[in-house]
Amino acid sequence: MSELKNDLFLRACRKEPVERTPIWIMRQAGRYLSEYKKVREKADFITMCQTPELAAEVTIQPVDVIGVDAAIIFSDILVVPQAMGMEFQMIESKGPVFPHPIRNEEDARNLKDIDPAKDLKYVLDAVSLAKKELDGRVPLIGFAGSPWTLLTYMVEGKGSKNFSYVKKMVYNNPQLAHRVLDKLAVAVAKYLSAKIDAGANAVQIFDTWGGVLSPSDFEEFSLRYITKVISEIKRNREPVIVFSKGVHHSLDKLSNTGADVIGLDWTMDLGEVRKKIGGKVALQGNLDPTVLYAGENKIREEAVKVISSYGEGSGHIFNLGHGILPDVDQEKAKALVQIVKEESKAVHRRDAKTQRF
Amino acid sequence: MSELKNDLFLRACRKEPVERTPIWIMRQAGRYLSEYKKVREKADFITMCQTPELAAEVTIQPVDVIGVDAAIIFSDILVVPQAMGMEFQMIESKGPVFPHPIRNEEDARNLKDIDPAKDLKYVLDAVSLAKKELDGRVPLIGFAGSPWTLLTYMVEGKGSKNFSYVKKMVYNNPQLAHRVLDKLAVAVAKYLSAKIDAGANAVQIFDTWGGVLSPSDFEEFSLRYITKVISEIKRNREPVIVFSKGVHHSLDKLSNTGADVIGLDWTMDLGEVRKKIGGKVALQGNLDPTVLYAGENKIREEAVKVISSYGEGSGHIFNLGHGILPDVDQEKAKALVQIVKEESKAVHRRDAKTQRF
After folding, report:
1. A171/B291 CB distance under 8 A
2. Model pTM greater than 0.90?
3. Which residue of B164, B213, B305 is in closest CB contact with A325?
4. What are B226-269's pLDDT values in tens digits?
5. Tens digit of pLDDT for each residue in A281-329?
6. Which of residues 295-314 of B touch A (CB under 8 A)?
7. If you measure CA to CA, which chain A residue comes closest to B265?
8. Which DSSP string corresponds to B254-275?
9. Residue B237 CB neighbours (<10 A)
10. Dihedral sign (CA B215, B217, B220, B223)
């Protein structure tokens, strides 16, 4: 990674010494940024995903505008089921929609194996282009949905409150659920491997809906396939991050999946989780995203709480506990990045010393 | 409580010996029941709440139809803000709506103190009537929303995903939030006291949205007011149950609020929680509500897991980990009740012996 001018993020993922805590923000390439909205005026969401020049442009914006320590490729987790043959729409008022959800064996049979180099070439091109345009300023993160999270969207067909259809599948036809999850795990592993091959310095798996399962169902229907994905990713030293929202009950199991970093939502106590699994993995998170509605003093107070909760030493990547909200003032996001850069130096003084001598 | 023919629920709340685990189901008087839907055809939701005869009728249905060990008065948590002067609508496709939400000092000033005997007479009449019609078959539960959960609806004005407005209030005008929460705590305590006075044998506080707060915000904006409510309820031996969804981080604190029973959602491990706080309180829960989409064998398997997880001895009230879903087959709910009645005897053999001799 010697070509990177700022490799703080990668060092923290590997728990190597850092001078300060690196920060990036989930959904940092998004609607809260005026620069993003300007691009979005010219093209709809799916077109932006599918046009490498536009995707690369908005990927780099938060590095320029708010000063984060890593870029994450602009895309959507649902490009994978789309590549597997599912028609996919993004409806402004409703969010993502699959007009023909997977409800039975026949629906599932239509899902094809993917070849990322062909079926998701546009994402890989965006990765290469963003990597080139970043020119080593910060690392680039690739991402995918976890098999379970992809399955929920594919079966529900749209956003859901109770996840009735996918839970019915899980309880009444678990074999079918397992077959699709296995297929998704293979696809996700191939996809993330291809992103690393195209230049991603790290990858994150979003298990956004892991938390709607009971602990034993989580283990059977989500954790197992996250583990499979991680074991099949082709990588050198690129870290794998798993963000599993609401999965307070299985952090120890998550730390044994082969992941290098576990992302935490804002209901977790970072210090306590560090005591439990910090010996095995680095931790990412976990400021309540709504704290960015507050004034700068409150943002500083809460950011310092997060930094202090993790405490001294490396292995912490600052982030929100979920994606940044679209109605946040971008100046607040900028202020947060600056605050973390300033305030986190104190917890790394010994690391800095170790490095200096 | 000698007038009750079945007081298993109350004994379990007090951790007294029982012959089997009692069961009731959150939202048991609801749309999954054909008998309920018949009543609902004649009157809209708010009219049903406001008509003691109808409210009492649907309150008793689950006792007759599915055989639960407790009735819970049919009502809505939002009758309290309505009684405080807020216009309240129930829109079929959108859920509850307050057309004039509380967003500033002036809005808040319009909230009046309530006198339950006048402002919520229709609920108290429904309680008395249901109590009379139950004729001692099972205990009757009264309920209210927690101050925090009521505040979220009053500030958001409708269901919310990110709770942006109430979080903005909490971070930018915490004094206002505290003032309204305090007023709500007083109102809720009076209301629950009046329900007990009208005949409720126990009360439950629903903190449905406690889990959207970080642990420290939960303590400041929800827990504090739950504690205040409980300390101000006028009661004799009537147990208080607190159900706080998603609050995995503060179970120990919840067990110190003065509550007799803590309700758990389905992401918690009942056995582990018992180890932590079972010495102080009884526990209620926590089957994943979507398990009722499964076949009877799977329902039995999962119900037995919940019973075994709590283990031997009293202090467990079986329930779902959240409300029953409206599209569940009522025969499944009936089957669950039967299963719990049969399968839980094994964990109470020693209790039964103690009682017999």
Report:
1. yes
2. yes
3. B164
4. 999 999 999 999 999 999 899 999 999 999 999 999 999 999 99
5. 999 999 999 999 999 999 999 999 999 999 999 999 999 999 999 999 9
6. 295, 298, 305
7. A214
8. HTTTT-SEEE--TTS-HHHHHH
9. 11
10. negative
| CA distances from residue A106 to A102, A164, A179 in whole angstroms, order as listed | 8, 20, 12
Long-range contacts of B98-106 (CB under 8 A, 24+ apart): B98/B153, B98/B154, B98/B157, B98/B158, B99/B157, B100/B157, B101/B154, B101/B155, B101/B156, B101/B157, B101/B165, B102/B151, B102/B154, B102/B155, B102/B180, B103/B155, B103/B165, B103/B169, B104/B176, B105/B176
Encode pLDDT of B3-37 as tens digits.
899 999 999 999 999 999 999 999 999 999 999 99
Please name which of B233, B97, B223, B78 lies closest in space to residue B150, comparing C-alpha atoms. Answer: B78
Question: 3-class SS at A313?
Answer: coil
For B190, the token pair is 């009076």
CA B114 → CA A242, B153, B162, distances in Å? 49, 18, 30
- List, for residues A110-146, the tens digit of each pLDDT value: 999 999 999 999 999 999 999 999 999 999 999 999 9
Cα(B261)–Cα(B286) distance, integer angstroms: 13
In degrees and rounded to multiples of 5, residue A135 shows phi and psi of 55, 40
Whether complex ipTM tops 0.85: yes
Q: Is the separation of the CB atoms in A153 and A98 below 8 Å?
A: yes
Only one residue has tokens 């976990």, namely: A286
Which residue of B171, B246, B249 is in closest CB contact with A298?
A: B171
Total residues belonging to chain A = 357
> Is B171 an interface residue toward A (CB < 8 Å)?
yes
Q: Where in chain A are the domains?
A: 1-25+287-357, 29-65+70-263
Verify whether the Cβ–Cβ distance A164 to B295 is below 8 Å: no
3 state DSSP class of A263: strand
The C-alpha atoms of residue A130 and residue B254 are separated, in whole angstroms, by: 49
Domain B29-65+70-263 has CATH 1.10.630.10: no
Q: How far is CA B93 from CA A35, B39, B158, in A?
A: 36, 19, 12
Query: Chain B residues with CB inside 8 Å of A164's CB?
Result: 290, 293, 325, 327
